[in-house]
Amino acid sequence: MKISVAVLSGGPSGEHEVSRASGKAIRDHLDPGRYDVVEIVWGRDGTWPDGLAATIALLGTVDVVIPALHGPGGEDGTVQGLLELAGVRYVGSGVKAGAVGMDKDFTKRALAARGLTVADDLVLRPGDEVTDDHRDGLGLPVFVKPARAGSSLGVTRVDDWSDLPKAILTAREHDPKILVEAAVRGREIDVAVLELPDGRLKAGPPLEIHTGRDFFDHEAKYSDAATRFEIPARLDPSATALLQRTALDVFDALECRGLVRVDFFLTPGGHPVVNEVNTFPGFAPASQFPRIWAAAGLSYPALLDLLINTALGTPIPS
Fold it and tell me: Is 278 an active-site residue?
């Protein structure tokens, strides 16, 4: 008997199109001999197909949901809460991990409390100002970013303090709460973590990002042909093991489920600094997460099988 799977994509965040690409890739790679697939596209304007009540009723008829959603409203625990109220199993982290993982400020607090290293930053809410003491403490350059957005939307590198006001306005187009973050010198390394159906965790081979830009911005991620991923990254075995252990620590600290991608800076001294956490990372075939596992010998369809089996082994929320 086939397993019924609902693939949910879209949503009202700035990552609507990225989510649609993830959803399409997932649907295209689900084995039709094993799965009956239902497509649900959440509108960019926040509307649901045939209404929210009808969507909830439809979700209640499937065995498992893959919420291929990125950004606020989808990756932040909101939809996960809806699925839990409906008593539906789903792939990925729950409400708490999603909410904390979506907010870069709260993520950093949780990880720092576990003794993990994160970049120094200043949190700005509406009405807050950057003082001379703040500037002296952070130094230049800094990165100004929305606290709750992904895909590097609204992120600006600031090399001169005179450019800070404009960068703040750009970030606040996506979130009133923003971070002014000290730059970290180091190699950009991603590590993917999978939860296996028996509960064991596995970290994949580290991926190094190579880009000719000032940083891995939105264009570098999605439209710059010069961007290159190297898997496995050229690291000595001890550095690889340290990054993988740290990624597993992040998974545990945030109480993630199913999968996570942890983005690091690896300093010249070999120390990992956690940059960001993605509780449901991009899932197009060219995205880092599936490419990491492909390099580890796990094909895209097999990766989906594993995620679904893990989700089906999770007790239905009560």
Answer: yes
